[in-house]
Amino acid sequence: MGESHVRGMLRRLSLPGSIVLLGAALAMSGCAAPVDPATTRESLSDVTEDPAPPEAAELYDAELHPEPVVDPVDCDPYLVITARGTGEPSQGQLLSPVARTISQARPGDVGVLDLDYPADTDVKEGGTLGVRTLIDVLNVQADACPAQRFVLLGYSQGALVVGDGLAEPEARMVGATVGTVAEEALDRVLAVVFYGDPRFVGAEEYNVGSFDPETDGLLPRPEGALDAVEERVRDYCVAGDFICQSSLDFDEEPHVEYYSNGMQGDGAAFVITRLDDAGAEFREEDGERTPPSTPTPRPRS
Q: What ranges does the record list as Pro residues composition bias (predicted)?
């Protein structure tokens, strides 16, 4: 496959129209169709069965193909990026009410972007694209919008994608070749919230929930892999969730408890507290909103 053809494919897999501004975010329903936990578990378990790298590892290799796969979006003071779970729709997902609550807390200041990745059962292929896309979004936005800060939300496979994107390549399960988040962009990440994280590590201090601290997830990340952002992370896991609490107990209910157990609101409250701490950075001395640093971006053809 020629390099020019690969670059063309990268451009077509960018984020056309994925930005969801405040009005659309408020219109999203809080009622989501729960994922199928058994299918999710099976697809995540398949990640370790075949040691061969996926085709996406070369297709999205950052050294071979350094051009970003995304164009910048608007320079809202805050950009909330959601990464949905396996089989979830881009709207009406578990993370939609979390993002909506954050938007309502800062009217007019929050852009919401659903990460454009497959979120299907081919986790190695789709997850690699997800990690590359997340890294490029953060780096491109940090370059285009000097005042913008980021909030990252991930559920199930989406938590794997976000966590691997923030970790160093050697600590990743997917996306080892797709580059890294620039230090400047990483510094702008205000908050990271996970639900039902397959890379859950029970011993981490940022964990929240009824989990057993001696039990890890299906694909635990190396302990300390997220040390660079650990004070900004909340990783929610409930007892019996066989995605973030790997076990032989195949009760499917706990992995979808996050839709109704109040942890969506708790995660949003954590993020809003983090926004409060950073809010002054987005205001001029006269109290007016800092204008965007770049024009409205053009859509990519």
A: 292-301
